[in-house]
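Researcher: Hi, I'm a grad student and pretty new to this. My advisor asked me to get structures for two proteins we've been looking at. I'm not sure of the right format, so I'll just paste the first sequence and hope you can take it from there.
Model: That works fine. Here's the first sequence with its structure tokens right after it:
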Amino acid sequence: MTSSTRRFSPWARMNRAQRENLNGHLLTAPTLLVILAIVIVPFLAVIVFAFADLRLVDIPYMNLGSIEWTLDNITGAMESKAFWGALGTTIAYATLTTLGAIVCGLVVALAIRRPFRGRGVVRALLLVPYVLPVIAAATIWRTMLNPQYGLINAFGLEFLGWDRPIGFLNTSTYEVFGVSIPLTLLTVVAFEVWKTTPLTFLFITARLQSIPGDIEEAAALDGASSRKILTQIVGPQLRAVVLLLILLRFIWSFQSFNDIYLLTGGAGGTQVMAVKVYTELITRADIGSAASYGLLMSVILGVLLVFYVLLSRRKETL
């Protein structure tokens, strides 16, 4: 390249700030392309399919000119009892798993906060459910809860006086002391709480370790009881991380699919929104209906995401 060519090239006419800005765009371009390919394009496809009369058998012959646009998928989902039933089940599942995981994680974190012999081993064992592959965890639970040879039913029949085995993974309602409970839903909630409590434990433990110990020592010297130290000193320090966990845990549970599908396949009153989308797509082969359910689910999650962003900005301004 000659000196005259370099003089009039776009790169030569840029100042240092412009060149650094261009370098930044070039460095982030691969990431943006990946996000575009695996997030943006599929989401746009979901939006298109949600307003199209389309089934799996139509895919080989599909083009934009042949698509029949319709609002029937959205209106049909909104008017369907199955949609509202799945939405109610999803909200109940997400709420119970969120509260259960956070309460259990908080209790465990506070219980092993003080040093004791073997605390490292206990912490390592607490992380086993979280690092265990979900397929392995679900298989263990399905085996333990099996009505024919499961450990839980064998123990109940032998020592608790059960008159018959209990189908924990296929019983919508079960009477306990005259009160009907959603047995299978509570079972998958217990599985999710057991699986995700270690994560909340890690979050809360990290926050506890950042609390200065001299504050609690000073309060104890002033005569404050352990309960007051916990509620008036430790509690306020944990408020922010607990609120964050509530929101994130609810969003994660709201879109949960693997755990429920592997345990029950949506049976026993556990058909949440994610399982409903899968059923519409695979069982009924209705792409439009599945996309409409997925789009409505995304809208709800979008509202939660906006709430999270607003909450984060509020924390920054405080």
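Researcher: Oh nice, that was easy. Here's the second one.
Model: And its structure:
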Amino acid sequence: MFRSKPINDAPPPEDPAALTDDDYWTSSRRPLSCLIFLLPLLGLYEVGVLWLGGSEPASYRNGADHWMRTALQEVGLVQVHVLPAIVIGLLLAWHLGGRYSWKVNRETLLGMTAESLLFALMLVVIGQLQSLAFAEINESTLPASTALASAGLSKVVSFVGAGVYEEVLFRLWMLPLCYAVFYVLFRSARWAAGTAILVTSVLFSLAHYVGPHGDAFSALTFSFRAMAGSFFALLFLLRGFGITVGCHAAYDLLVGILLVDHT
């Protein structure tokens, strides 16, 4: 009779982290990869706002950034670096809490850049198709964008900032919070996720019409922004925070400078 192999001769178990360190699809979703990918965009926006705004940087801040800073000021946190420090600290805490590897290679960051551009182009195509559909029912088409020659640094800074802080507010913070609330109500992960995506996407769209600098409401822009919010939410859940920010910023730059202004 054959004897079973002694337990002591069995190979040691594989380290799960070691198996996934070189897996792009996993490493690109990790908080440290997202943070390193995000830092140039965050730095460009924050430095650009301070440089362009001078003594009045608030005039160059986008809506999501302004709302979060106002909330922080209500509790006495008025320093200009507090909000970006919170974003960085949140991602670092997520990384430490998950006990992820500290390894991030250049190929991962390049892949995240390529994915961001690819998904941004997909969203541009979806927007153009929706614009054509609305034109068929006699809705006005989306307004033409400003020519590239007239798009200055302030526009680039604004679009990058929207990509960063709108995703921080609506996807990184609000989406998980809504999911937790709806999970308590529904006791179903599927219903909680679907409802959280729907609610945050509608709020994301409505936010573009709030305040003195808000856009005039139209069915076309509202429906597109709600759809874009759902697109970003699914991207956040499936491909992570970094690629979602990159896609949003790339999309805004494409349509706000080169193509048509949906946002």
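Researcher: Is there anything I should tell my advisor about the second?
Model: You could mention this: Residues 1-20, 140-151 have pLDDT under 50 and may be disordered.
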